[in-house]
Design goal:
binds 3-methylbut-3-enyl trihydrogen diphosphate, about 240 residues, alpha/beta, disordered N terminus, 6 strands, six-stranded parallel β-sheet, Undecaprenyl pyrophosphate synthetase, single chain, binds magnesium ion, 8 helices, 2 domains
């Protein structure tokens, strides 16, 4: 779609999603099909992250949120978990300069402070170094779980109410949204999951209330610019009704 549009100087599609989120799934199966260790799939997955974040910028998306590590992924073998941490460090070390240069605002959602101290320091430094940028948001979900996010929001609101700072009756949709980790991001328009699985796996449960969902068979390491363009194109052909007519 992008390539075609660029080649023929067609305008970008009229209905561009502002905020796209991706459950990047299928690295392990990609590796297994090649008789490679799962780690090789994760390494290939990082290449896809690079390609897709560039494509998202080229398309003019305002925000891209990537599910990199769920609060349930700790259940994996220790060496796989530490391998994923290593790849996160690798990604930041290799790609931060480009993000800074391209005016990207890097954000993290999730309880990333549970990661090893060196990873936490690197992540915080990376976020800080893009803090003055004004361009598109790249949000990485690290040790993220939507249920924990909602529980934390509920606890903060309850604490405020208990302290007398807020009438419980004033807790409405906007009040909850202001407590979510996505509060600075545009509303979620399109949620993509790769690898054929059709579940949300505790990702952006609140934010997905009226997002368009797209499940594709492509394994994450094979997902590229053309796949993102196809997803955005499919989004443009959806009719969103929000309960109306
Ligand atoms: C997604 O790929 C990456 C992470 C969850 C970090 P998987 O590792 O889940 O790949 P499959 O689902 O086993 O193929
Ligand atoms: C979801 O994928 C988490 C990420 C992509 C980071 P999983 O592979 O962990 O999800 P399940 O276990 O199949 O639901
Ligand atoms: Mg998986």
């Amino acid at each position: 779609m992008m390539a075609t549009a660029a080649a023929t100087h067609q305008p970008v599609p009229e209905v561009l999603p502002r905020h796209v989120a991706i459950i990047m799934d299928g690295n392990g199966r990609w590796a297994a099909r090649r008789h490679l260790p799962r780690a090789a799939g994760h390494r290939a997955g990082v290449e896809a992250v690079r390609t897709v974040t560039r494509a998202a910028r080229a398309m003019g998306l305002e925000a891209l949120t990537l599910y990199a590590f769920s609060s349930e992924n700790w259940r994996r073998p220790e060496d796989e978990v530490s391998g994923l941490m290593g790849l996160l460090k690798f990604f930041i070390r290799h790609d931060l300069a480009e993000l800074v240069r391209e005016n990207v605002r890097l954000r993290v959602i999730g309880d990333y402070r549970r990661f090893p101290a060196d990873v936490v320091a690197l992540v915080e430094d990376a976020v800080e170094r893009t803090a003055a940028n004004t361009g598109p948001i790249l949000a990485i979900a690290l040790n993220y779980g939507a249920q924990a996010e909602l529980v934390a929001a509920a606890q903060r609101l309850a604490a405020r109410a208990a302290a007398g700072g807020m009438d419980p009756a004033a807790i409405d949709v906007d009040a909850v949204e202001r407590e979510l980790e996505t509060r600075e991001l545009p509303p979620l328009d399109l949620l993509i999951r790769t690898s054929g699985e059709q579940r949300l796996s505790n990702f952006l449960l609140w934010q997905a209330a009226y997002a368009e969902l797209l499940f594709v068979e492509t394994l994450w390491p094979d997902f590229g610019a053309a796949d993102l363009a196809a997803a955005v194109d499919a989004f443009g052909r959806r009719q969103r009704r929000y309960g109306g007519l």
